[in-house]
Structures are given as C-alpha cells and as structure tokens.
Write a structure and sequence with these properties.
- With about 375 residues, the chain is an all-alpha fold.
- It has 15 helices and four strands.
- It has one domain (about 1-370).
- About 70% of the residues lie in helices and about 0% in strands.
- Helix 8 packs antiparallel against helix 11 (about 255-280).
Length: about 375
C-alpha cells in the first residue's frame, strides 16, 4: 500500500530529481575516495562538506515549500527550527569531547569550565547518547512548532501577520542563545567537535558518509512531501491555500490541518540542521538570525514554490551563487545581488525557475494536443471542380 502511494506520487520530474540526488550521493564520495588528488576528476574533501551543506539547505527549503507552496503558510522563522535541530546535534557532539577538551573536564564542555559552571545543566542530561540526541533533533523543533502553531492558528493569525510573529520568534531565540547564562556557549556557540558515533568528524570517510546520509535524508523528505501533497490530505492543504474561508465553510477543521503540516515541516527543518552541524563544524546563535529565514524563503521563490523539486534546486543554485560571488571582488554586493534576484524572479518568473519551465512545457503540450485533435477531427476539404 505504501509503495503504491509513493509510486503514484512520482511524476517524470520527481523521478528524475530522485535519480539525480541518488547519483550525486554515490558519485561524489567515489570521486573523493576512489581517485588520487592528482586526478582531474578528484573531488576535494572541502567540496564534499560544501556540497553536504547545500543538501541540508535543500532539505530546509523543502520543508518551507511544504507549508508555503502547498498550504499558503509563509513562515519567516523556519531558521529557528533548523538551528534548534543543529543545537541538539551540537550538544551530543560536545558531550563526546570529554577529557580531550582544552580544560580536560570529562563532563563539562570547555565554555562551561571557562564560565565557572559547577555542574552540567539538567537540560544537557542524556545528550551523551546518540539516540536521545536524535530524538531531541525532531522533538524540540516539533514541540515548539506545535505550541506556537496551536495558539497562532486557533487565533486565526494568517498572512503577513503570521510571517511577522514567526520572525519575532526566531529573533527572540537568537537574543536568548546569545546570552552566556543560557548554557549554549553564548555568541561562540558550540564547536571543536571531535567524534560522531566514535568516528572522527574531520576524517574523509566520515565526511563522505555524512554527505551521503544528507542525500538520503533529502530523498526521504522529498518522498514524504510528494506522498502528502498528492494525497487527499494534500488536496485539502491546496484548498486551504487557495480559499481558506471556503474550505472552512465546507466543514474542514482548517486549524488542525495547518497545525499538523506546520509541525511536520519544523521537524524536517530540525533534521536538516542536525545534518548540517557535523559537516560545517559549528553552530552558533547567528543561525537564528531572521535574515537566514528570509533567505531560505528566497531559495524557494527562486526555484519555484509548490513544485517540491524547485525548492531544493533553488536552494542549491542560490547558495552556490553565494559561495561564488562572496569569494571575490563582488563580496560586498552579494546582498544587493540576492535582493535583485528575488525582485527579478518575482517580476519575470513569478512561478520560479522550475515552476515556469513546467508551465511552459504544459502550454506547449496543450498546443500540440490541440493541433493533433484539430488534425483528426477537421472535416475533409470540398473537392475543387476540375478546370
């Protein structure tokens, strides 16, 4: 039954996307580990980590597209759920350092020893276990989204007002995590990771495995999103996006649908953050910055909201452009370029890159079908009289 639902939810574009991600997950580690550095096709280890970061961003974009593209919920605070998942994984990685830290304390992380903390805070208990940390990666962002969404959706906060309060949420969390007495490293955050499940996080093999796991997570997230949006539940979400009041008058409990999909989206963002942290080697309060959440929305808009594939592709393209342009003379002007990109896409490609391509392809297919039908059904021409 499950396999039938998944197969039914995949069209040609979705299948091609999944095959491409699976190929990347296989080929990149092979080119990194299987070829010598002197080879033209060798992929350096730093690029493996960079590509892994892009994949995590793609999963975050997918979670935003699920609520914005298919349910009309524009969240400008999804960076908060991404960061919370990252902090949960960072706490596990910090507990693995043990006596190998600068101050050689087997229990307290270095920043707690530096700040004269006498004991480990209770909310750090259990993070020495990977299973517990993995549970918190999903549970903490999901619980926050559930509580926040419960009050927001029951109060029927929608549109720009919802966007503003989600932005206020992530900004409040950023201010809190910047405080040293919060117990999360203050403005320095969590860093200097050593091991994950006993494997050195800096080792080439570990980085390649993390990259492949990120690709698998993106594939699973994509399949989940496609299964949802092509189901009856997804049809209700689209109805809420297009006509929320009418959907409510038809008897659907709109708030319950929105709350469920918002919570699920936050859990996906938390998983993306957890995979992001061991690959970049640090998590700090700047990840909560509202500008990060706004930038993630731009990824979705550029790729094409409501397309699933467009959100992931937009995240990769925009972040690749960011990496390329911020490493040269154009670095001071990147934000202006990003803003111009968003304005240009809004004006000339309102459906995004993938959405516009799908629209143009659909129009062309319709014209071809119409022409074929006219050719079949057109009556034969009257015979001309002989001269």
């Amino acid at each position: 039954m499950t396999s039938h639902i998944l197969i039914r939810s995949l069209d040609r574009d979705a299948t091609f996307f999944l095959v491409a991600v699976a190929a990347v997950a296989t080929v990149v580690p092979m080119l990194n580990l299987g070829l010598p550095e002197s080879s033209l096709f060798h992929v350096p280890t730093y690029l493996v980590a960079l590509f892994g970061k892009y994949i995590c961003y793609a999963l975050l974009a997918l979670s935003i597209d699920l609520i914005w593209g298919y349910c009309g919920i524009l969240s400008l605070g999804h960076g908060a759920f991404f960061a919370l998942g990252g902090y949960a994984m960072g706490m596990y990685l910090m507990r693995q350092i043990g006596a190998r830290g600068v101050y050689a304390d087997p229990i307290l992380p270095d920043f707690m020893v530096f700040l004269n903390w006498k004991s480990l805070p209770i909310y750090w208990f259990g993070f020495q276990h990977f299973a517990y940390a993995s549970l918190m990666v999903v549970l903490v962002p999901g619980a926050l989204a559930f509580v926040f969404g419960w009050f927001a959706f029951r109060s029927r906060v929608t549109g720009v007002y919802f966007s503003i309060i989600t932005q206020a949420l992530t900004y409040a969390l950023m201010l809190g995590f910047f405080r040293n007495n919060f117990g999360f490293g203050g403005n320095n955050g969590l860093t200097d990771f050593k091991d994950i499940l006993g494997f050195n996080v800096q080792a080439e093999t570990t980085r390649n495995v993390l990259f492949s796991i990120s690709c698998v997570a993106l594939i699973l997230g994509f399949l989940l999103c496609r299964a949802i949006v092509t189901s009856k539940f997804g049809k209700v979400l689209i109805a809420i996006r297009d006509a929320e009041a009418r959907t409510r008058f038809l008897g659907y409990r709109v708030e319950s649908y929105k709350l469920l999909i918002f919570t699920l989206s936050a859990c996906m963002a938390g998983i993306a953050g957890a995979l992001y942290v061991p690959q970049v080697g640090i998590i700090n309060p700047s990840e909560f910055a509202p500008s990060n959440s706004i930038e993630a929305v731009i990824w979705v808009a550029v790729g094409g909201r409501g397309t699933s594939t467009g959100a992931a592709i937009g995240a990769v393209l925009v972040n690749y452009a960011k990496t390329y342009f911020t490493s040269g003379v154009l670095a001071p002007y990147w934000l202006f370029m990003l803003g111009g990109l968003f304005i240009g896409v809004t004006l000339f490609l309102p459906r995004g890159i993938v959405g516009s391509l799908q629209h143009w392809t659909g129009l062309r297919r319709d014209r071809i079908s119409a022409a074929a039908e006219d050719g079949v059904t057109a009556p034969p021409a009257d015979p001309q009289p002989a001269e």
